[in-house]
Amino acid sequence: NKRPGDELFKNFIGDDRRIFACSGKDFFSFESNGAVAWTVHLNYTCNADIAPVNGGDGYIYVVAENRVLKIHPLKIGTSEEPVEVFFDAGLGEENPGEIVGVSASIYSSVVLVNVKKRGLFAYKLQGTPLWTAGPIISRHGYQQGCKKNTTECYFSSPPVIDHCEASILISNTVGELYSISVRRPYFKWIKDLSSYGVSFVVTPGNNGRSYVTVPDSSLVLALDASTGDTLWERSVGPLSSSDYEPVVDSNGWISFGSLDGSVYSLSPTGSLRKSSNSVSSTSVVQVNPILDCSGYGVYVSRTETEETTIADRRRRVSAFSKPKKAVFTHFVPASGAVLYSEAVPGNELLFEVLSRSDLGQHFAVDERTLLAFFAASMDGKNLISVLVIESILVVVLSAAVRYCCVFWRKKKLQSLGLSKFLDKRASLKSEERALGIMISAAAEDGETTAEELAKERELIRRKLSSRYSLGRDDDGGEASSSIRHRRLYGLRGSKNGESSSSSFAIFHSVGRSSSPSSNSTSPSAY
C-alpha cells in the first residue's frame, strides 16, 4: 500500500535502461515496466535533492545523510556486502559538512565530492584519495579565487566534469566559475559571473563549450571551455526552479523546457529553435528533459492545466490549477523533428502497465518519475529498431565493399582506367544491340549471314560477361579451353578372348600447370 513516505527521490537511467532511485533508506532498481529488479537497504537516509550517480563498471554512488555510499549491484544476493561507505564527511570532524554534490567519471577514473565550507575532494574509483582543493589558492604570491569576499566564500555547486577538456566546473558563493584540472588542483581559469547573480547551473557541452544557465533571469551563456571567454548569450522562457538542469545532446545543442510550454534549443553557435507547435496557452514544462540512448534525441514532459498565469517572465512566478493531462514528447533538437508524442489521458497503455506494477502499487509517482519511465520504455523499443537498421546497413555495406574490391581488381579496369573501361563496355553493349537487330533482319530474309552474326554477337557477350563485366574477371573461353584439354580414355573388357560389348570412358582434365603431353596415371587424375 502507498504511504506518505513512499516517495521516490531524484533518479537516473542506467546504461541498461533501468531506473535507479532512493526512497527513504532503501535504494531501488526498476525495470522500464515498473517492476522492481532489486532493492538494497542503506542504513542511512538518502538525500532527496541529489540524484544517484552512475560511476561506470556497474557501480552507483548515492549521497545519504553526510556520506557517499558506493553500491555494488553484482554483490546483491551474495554473501558479500553490496553497500560500502565511500566517503564520510563527518569522519574526524566535530561539525560534519553538508555534501553539496558528487560526480564520477570512468574516463578520468575519479570521484568528486563537494563538501560545504570544506572544499572539493577527489578520489580514485577504488577510494584512494587524490587531492583536495578550496576556492582560494596562491600562486607566486597572487591570490586566485574569492576576490570579493574571502571569509564567506566556498564552493557552492555540484562539481561537473567536462570529459573533452579533462576539467571540473564548479562555482562559489560570490558568483565565480572555476575550471579545475581533473588530475591536480590546478585552476585553468576563473570567470566572474557575479553580474548575473550567484546562483546558476553549469552544464558541460563536451564540445568545446561550457553552458551557464541563470534561472532567475532565464539567461543562457556559452563559454569557451578552454579559456572561459563568453561566446554568446541568449534569453529563454521562464524556468521552473533555481536548480533546473538542461541537457546537451551529441550535436552540441542545449535544450530547456519552459513554464510558457515551449522547448528552447540552442545550437553551439547560439542559433535558437523554439518548439511551440500545437502547444496550448495553458501548457507548462516543469521537469528537466532527459537525453535518449542515442544521445541525439530529447524527451520532454508538458503539463496542460485548466489555467496558467506567468506573472513575471523574468521571475519564474507561476500559478496554475489542477492539471488536465501530460504530454510526453521525443524530439531531435538539431532538426526539430518530433519522433513520438503521447498524451495522458489518451494513449494510456504504458501508464496502465505502470499503475499495476510495483511502481504504481507502492510509490507516489510524480511527473519527473513518469518521464523517466517513459524515456526508458521508449529507448528499449528504439534500441531494437536501431539494432535491426544497423544490421541491415552492415550487410549492405559489406556487400558493397566486397563488390568494389572485386570490381577494382579487374585487369582491364587497371590497364584502361575507369573512364575508358566504361566507354569500351558501352561500345560493346551498342554493338550487341546492333547485331541483334541485324540477326533478326537476316533471319526474316533467309540469309546465311545470320549464323555468322550470331557467332560475332556471342563473342561480344562473352567479353561483356567476363573482361568487361561489372563483376569479377571470368574468362569466357575457359570452358572451351578445358574441353580441348580433356582426353578420352576408352576401356573395353574381354572375356575368353572375345571382345565385350561393354565399355566406358573416363575424361581426364589436364590442369593449366600440367603439360598437354603429361600422362599421369595417379588416382587423383581420374
Automatic annotation (TrEMBL):
Question: Do you know which InterPro entries this protein is assigned to?
Answer: GEX3-like (IPR045301), Quinoprotein_ADH-like_sf (IPR011047), WD40/YVTN_repeat-like_dom_sf (IPR015943)
Which superkingdom?
Eukaryota
Q: What is this protein called?
A: Uncharacterized protein
The reply on keyword Transmembrane helix is yes
GO BP annotations, alphabetical order: embryo development ending in seed dormancy; pollen tube guidance
Gene3D superfamilies named among the record's database cross-references = YVTN repeat-like/Quinoprotein amine dehydrogenase (2.130.10.10)
Q: Which organism is it from?
A: Genlisea aurea
Q: Does the keyword Nuclease apply?
A: no
GO terms for CC? plasma membrane
**Keyword annotations of the record:** Membrane, Transmembrane, Transmembrane helix
Coiled-coil region(s) at which residues? none
Q: Where are its TM segments located?
A: 383-405
